[in-house]
UniProtKB/TrEMBL annotation:
It holds the Pfam family Xpo1. It is found in: Cytoplasm; Nucleus. Transmembrane segments: none annotated. One of its GO terms (biological process) is protein import into nucleus. This is Importin N-terminal domain-containing protein. Keywords: Cytoplasm, Nucleus, Protein transport, Transport. Its main location: cytoplasm.
Length: 1024
């Protein structure tokens, strides 16, 4: 590798001359594939004097490692050991900026190579950590590397890892503990970035090894005491708010670790995955009481402004206290501090921060996101909401005292002039109400129930007219939490209506935006109330116009959901304006889609930024599509109006496919599906989209990702547009490409699942039934070949019961071919294939439950038995005629029952009340084993990690296995190719034809029937 050439490339990459930069970038791409490239980069970083060139080289080196190191064939395997050994030492000698740039590269190498390809790493780390002469930079890199080693064990349980991890813990953790104590207690290191980061990494080493499972060597004895004591010592250090971030984060993760030990291993619940009794007893009796005292003391010092407590630390502290609420034995530790926690701590947490109020003034959109939307950020407010929810859920006796406190303090504030401090107090009080609103709405175990409605009128409603806009926004938000409250007074509803609408129907501005968004949420909440709905009726049109105006100003999933609710509640009122509304929705949606496409197309480097900054665009767009579909469904009986609507949203569908916006393929397909279903036809506009639709699926690297979501739309083209399909070779070829893309995959590999075969077969069956007998015979032969092959493979891979749905779907392909073109079908089956087909067909007869499958098989038998007897004899199929007759009659007798079941399912689906569904929140309640009024809590294993970890990610062996019901069921909301076929008259005609023209075959077909089948057959035929 010519270092001089490489150096020039990095220099040119910084040039203001675009052509020079383009040359440099192209040459760097070429050189990066050359052996020695990475080593040459390190040479430049080490000896270059120009800091900009050093940095450019460092970034390129890092990105190359991140992208190419995990791919074995890209970087020369002979070069890899040299690079990793050198990099490990190299980063210790760099300044902080370059070192921090290259540490992610070291992480990637460790994560990929340890332990299999870098088994000497632990020994090297040990030398550095245990060498007292090393400087703090070297120690930092060594512990950083050790943290990556610990991270590699985080998703493994003790059974999988104890042989390798436990010796590492025994060898390293005592040393880590000593280093951590020294760093934390040395005041001269308070301004040291490296020291603070080392302490954070030590805490995270403990986190990584205890997060999923608890190593035995840390569960009991001195290691347990030492590490918990160390965590407490970290918590008790009083850092300043402007301290090095590592010190602050070390406290955050210390709080996290202690909460995790309590929540996962220190509490016995029905859902517990681990039962470490010795630890649990020790923790409960010796550790927990002291920790609660430490935490309460910390909060008292924080309230008195004697100690800084970061919001992220307060989050885990409050979660810890909430965990203690879950059982009777630990609740007593919290109960004595109730007044302090509710009256002082909660007020300080809920009191709006000055920076948030400044955010309202400067960036109202960001204020909405931060204050009113559920983000991934874990804040003290989030934890306090959960704490209050759990408190009143586990012990309803606390509901009334909290409510009375809110009412009393509100009355005190209402008697004062509304200054900013008074307004902030009101904001805090309203935040108290949100997590307990669901309990206040229930009369059971709620002595305060009769006071709730007066609370609305006397306390909340006046805040709709506050001179502070953030109070109005909060008021709208809080009242929306009472969606289950049964209001007794019409006056209350009218007061709510006046307050909400007066804040919604105002001119849009930055000042009013948060208020209007929350007012829209409140409208959505109360539109189900008949009195509120009647009041809304006269202003529906200006209401929808305002919603559209707001949606053009602010991207959120909230507004489309409100619009959809309004459309569903007032369809008649909106009917005259449906086309105008659809046009506006489509214009907004197109704008969002173009923005999403631009951001996605910006490249991999920018994708995270796109996710963070533009995630709301996708949510808003999805909500708009849902509203569009709601409008469309309302006009089921008006094809003329649908045609007008179609003219607008077809452009949106085309945009999705042309710009390859994959995240919206399912929504585009749903619009197509509903259009074809509602009109029972395929318009020229819909046909104009077909090519882009199919090609978008075909051009994706994995067609199976989108096939299921697209299936109904693709089938509807065939069901309602078969006349066009029969005449168009191009359309036939596109369908064959779709089907064969799946059928040609290796079912024995991981490239395809059995569900994919199910979907492709479903499409293939519908496709065949849309053809005419004179279509290209190669289509039939190809489908037949792969269907028979699939039957053979599935028979070898699955148990009969599990394979039934797949066998039925593949047999359906063959039967469909038999129905459309029996001669071609029979002629292309060799002896072995014929046996596979008929064996599977006969064996699946008893498994057929869907009306479609039963009708198809009956039609298949009729088609087969209508083949000339001489030809059947030549094909050695005469012996099957009697079995075909018996199976056909059994299926015919099953038709009335199957139709009845389908009609019943349709009625059930139509009558289903979704409001009756059981919903679950994060605080699911289970009975404690020993009984009593307290319930154990199954709390989701929340992990707020900088790296975005997910608990128990790979714990279930069948995580990625496809599961399906053993029986295929009719979809009550879709049509099929056979719906228009009257199977009774078809069967009656078949019998009459045989009786007249071929009595011998008639006798062969029906001679094997028993008396019960004969009587059943005669009964049905006599009623036709």
């Amino acid at each position: 590798m010519e270092i001089e050439l490489l150096h020039r490339c990095f220099s040119y990459s910084l040039s203001p001359d675009q052509s020079a930069r383009q040359y440099a970038e192209g040459k760097l791409d070429e050189l990066s594939q050359t052996p020695g490239f990475l080593a040459a980069c390190l040479e430049i970083i080490q000896y270059e004097k120009d800091p900009l060139v050093k940095q450019a080289t460092s970034i390129y080196f890092k990105n190359t490692i991140l992208k190419q190191w995990p791919i074995d064939s890209v970087i020369d395997n002979g070069e890899k050991p040299v690079i990793r050994e050198r990099l490990f030492v190299f980063v210790t000698k760099l300044d902080r900026v370059l070192r921090n740039q290259l540490l992610p590269a070291l992480s990637t190498i460790i994560n990929h190579d340890y332990p299999d390809k870098w088994n000497s790493l632990i020994e090297e780390i040990s030398k550095w950590i245990n060498n007292p002469s090393n400087d703090i930079n070297t120690l930092y890199v060594a512990i950083y590397a050790f943290a990556e080693v610990c991270r590699s064990y985080r998703w493994k349980n003790n059974k999988e890892r104890h042989l390798t991890l436990d010796p590492i813990i025994s060898a390293f953790f005592p040393c880590l503990l000593n280093i951590g104590k020294q760093l934390a207690s040395d005041p001269t290191l308070q301004n040291s970035y490296e020291a603070s980061e080392i302490l954070k990494l030590i805490i995270k080493c403990y986190k990584f090894v205890t997060y999923l499972d608890f190593p035995e060597v840390l569960q009991t004895g001195q290691p347990l005491i030492d590490w918990i004591t160390f965590h407490v010592e970290i918590l008790q250090i009083n850092y300043n708010a402007d301290a090095q971030i590592g010190w602050i984060k070390s406290q955050k993760w210390a709080y996290h670790n202690l909460y995790r030990l309590f929540q996962r291993y220190g509490t016995k619940t029905i859902s517990s995955k681990f039962d470490y009794k010795d630890f649990r007893v020790t923790f409960k009796n010796e550790v927990l009481p002291q920790l609660v005292n430490v935490y309460i003391d910390t909060l008292r010092r924080w309230i008195a402004n004697e100690k800084y407590l970061a919001d992220s630390s307060a989050y885990y502290l409050m979660l810890f206290l909430e965990q203690a609420l879950l059982t009777k034995s630990t609740f007593g530790l919290i109960d004595p501090h109730f007044n302090f926690l509710i009256g002082e701590v909660a007020f300080k947490i809920f009191n709006p921060k000055d920076e948030d109020l400044e955010l309202y003034e400067d960036e109202p959109e960001e204020y909405i996101h931060k204050i009113f939307e559920y983000l991934d950020e874990c804040t003290a407010e989030d934890a306090l909401y959960s704490f209050l929810f759990t408190l009143v859920e586990k012990n309803p006796d606390y509901l009334t005292p909290i409510f009375q406190m809110v009412v009393t303090k509100f009355q005190e504030l209402n008697n004062q002039e509304e200054t900013i401090e008074v307004a902030k107090g009101k904001e805090a009080l309203m935040k108290f109400v949100s997590p307990i609103a669901y309990k206040l709405s229930q009369p059971e175990k709620n002595p305060a129930f009769n006071d709730v409605e007066p609370f609305f009128n006397n306390v909340l409603v006046p805040n709709f007219q506050s001179k502070f806009q953030f109070i109005r926004a909060r008021c709208c938000n809080v009242v929306s939490k009472f969606d289950n409250l049964d209001f007794k007074s019409v006056e209350t509803i009218q007061n709510l209506y006046n307050g909400i609408i007066s804040n919604f129907l105002v001119d849009c501005s930055n000042e009013t935006l948060p208020v209007q968004i929350q007012a829209a949420v409140a409208i959505q909440t109360f539109v189900v109330n008949e009195t509120f709905k009647q009041s809304l009726e006269p202003i529906i049109l200006p209401l929808m116009e305002k919603l559209m105006e707001l949606s053009n100003k602010f991207d959120s999933e909230v507004l489309p959901a409100v619009m959809q609710e309004i459309v569903e509640s007032f369809p008649e009122k909106l009917e005259p304006f449906a086309e105008q509304l659809m046009e506006q929705l489509c214009l907004k949606l197109n704008s969002l889609l173009l923005s999403i496409a631009d951001a996605t197309g910006a490249g991999y480097e920018d994708y995270d930024d796109f996710e963070n900054s533009n995630g709301d665009k996708s949510s808003t767009a999805l909500g708009i599509v849902s509203t569009m579909i709601t409008i469309l469904l309302y006009f089921e009986n008006s094809t003329e109006i649908i045609g007008k609507l179609e003219a607008h949203y077809s452009k949106t569908i085309k945009t999705i496919f042309e710009l390859k916006i994959e995240d919206f393929y399912a929504e585009a397909a749903e619009l197509i599906e509903n259009t074809l279903f509602l009109t029972r036809s395929v318009s020229p506009l819909m046909w104009s989209l077909f090519g882009d639709f199919v090609n978008s699926l075909l051009e994706d690297d994995d067609i199976t990702l989108y096939l299921e979501d697209s299936l109904s739309a693709l089938k509807n083209y065939l069901i309602y547009g078969s006349d066009v399909v029969q005449k168009s070779v191009e359309i036939q070829q596109l369908y064959m490409r779709l089907i064969m893309n799946v059928f040609e995959m290796d079912v024995e590999s991981s490239d395809i699942g059995f569900s994919d075969i199910l979907h492709a077969s479903d499409l293939a069956t519908t496709f065949i039934l849309a053809l005419s007998s004179d279509c290209n015979s190669e289509i039939f032969t190809t489908i037949i070949h792969y269907s028979v092959k699939g039957l053979a493979q599935i028979g070898n891979m699955l148990q009969p019961k599990k394979s039934s749905p797949y066998r039925i779907s593949l047999v359906d392909n063959l039967v469909a071919c038999l129905v459309i073109n029996p001669l071609v079908t029979l002629s292309c089956l060799d002896t072995q294939q014929m046996e596979i087909f008929f064996t599977n067909w006969f064996n699946t007869t008893a498994d057929l439950k869907r009306v479609f499958d039963i009708k198809l098989s009956i039609l298949g038998y009729i088609s087969l038995l209508n083949v000339d007897s001489t030809l059947l004899n030549n094909m050695r199929l005469t012996s099957l005629v009697n079995n075909c007759g018996i199976n056909m009659v059994k299926l015919f007798l099953a038709v009335p029952g199957a139709i009845k079941d389908l009609e019943k399912r349709r009625e059930e689906f139509s009558e289903k009340k979704w409001t009756d569904e059981v919903t679950y929140n994060i605080n699911q309640v289970h009975d404690e084993e020993e009984g009593g009024e307290f319930n154990e809590e199954f709390n989701g294993d929340d992990e707020d990690d900088d790296e975005g970890e997910y608990d128990d990610m790979f714990q279930h062996n069948n995580l990625f296995n496809f599961e399906t019901e053993d029986e295929l069921q009719d979809d009550p909301y879709s049509n099929t190719s056979l719906d228009k076929i009257n199977i009774f008259t078809q069967f009656q005609g078949f019998i009459a034809n045989l009786q007249t023209n071929d009595t011998n075959k008639y006798n062969s077909v029906f001679s094997g029937l028993n008396e019960e089948d004969k009587n059943g057959l005669n009964s049905i035929l006599s009623n036709i």
